[in-house]
Amino acid sequence: MRAVLLLALLLQATGTLAQATGSTAFCLFPVPADGGVQRWINLGIVQYVEARNDDVRIYYGGGNLGSGHEARIPVKSREEADAVLSRLRRSAALCAQPVPGGSP
Q1: Whole-angstrom Cα distance, residue 43 to residue 50?
Q2: How far apart are CA 13 and CA 81, in angstroms?
Q3: Cα–Cα distance between 31 and 74 in angstroms, integer?
Q4: Which 3 state secondary structure label does DSSP give 44?
């Protein structure tokens, strides 16, 4: 009986490992609204992030000749900027995790 239970658990674990992962290519993160329109940036195309005492700047979608964009998240202190960076890291990590139930 134990061998059957162990085999069932191993098969279930194998299925979990074979699940599709989340998408780091399409990983949305909210940024402050612009003109009343809520915006999200795709973390998969972020090039770099600057943390300052008054804002966090996220540079994304760049190409040649300065064609990139930037999103600014206002903060009141360096500690708040670090908290925004932590949220960015958590969001990116969640996008890389397996999707429950496999791929759609």
Answers
A1: 14
A2: 39
A3: 10
A4: helix
Predicted TM-score (pTM) of the model is: 0.67
What digits encode the pLDDT tens for the residues 36-91? 899 999 998 888 999 999 999 999 887 766 678 899 999 999 999 999 999 999 99
CA distance 84 to 87: 5
Please give the Cα distance from 78 to 63 (Å, whole number). Answer: 29
Q: Which of 32, 28, 40 is nearest to 95 (CA)?
A: 28
DSSP-assigned letters across all residues of 3-33: HHHHHHHHHHHHHHHTSPB--SSS-EEEEEE
